[in-house]
């Protein structure tokens, strides 16, 4: 989980890439006044806003260490 927070992968990340491409294309043909409001998340089916406060490196490291100690 700690590694995923640093380097996300999977379907959600794929949706973001697709959303970025789609938003870019839609902005090209949109009314210039409305184009600024078009975001990649508008094209992501199950988007959840990120946490308000990001975890610190130390917090992520502590989580990772705790997971690794349980795996032994």
Task: Describe this protein's structure.
This protein has 4 helices and no strands. It has helices at residues 2-6, 11-29, 32-35, 57-71. The model has no long low-confidence stretch (mean pLDDT 81). The longest helix is centred in the N-terminal third of the chain and has 19 residues, at 11-29. It is elongated. It has one domain (2-45, 53-71). The protein has 72 residues and is mostly helical.
Core attributes:
4 helices, elongated, mainly alpha, 72 residues
What is the strand and helix layout of this fold?
Layout: H1 2-6, H2 11-29, H3 32-35, H4 57-71
Question: Strand tally, please?
Answer: 0
Shape, per Cα inertia axes: elongated
What's the story with the biggest beta sheet? none
User: Uncertain runs with pLDDT below 50, 5 residues or more?
Assistant: none
Summarize the structure.
The protein has 72 residues and is mostly helical. The chain contains four helices and no strands.
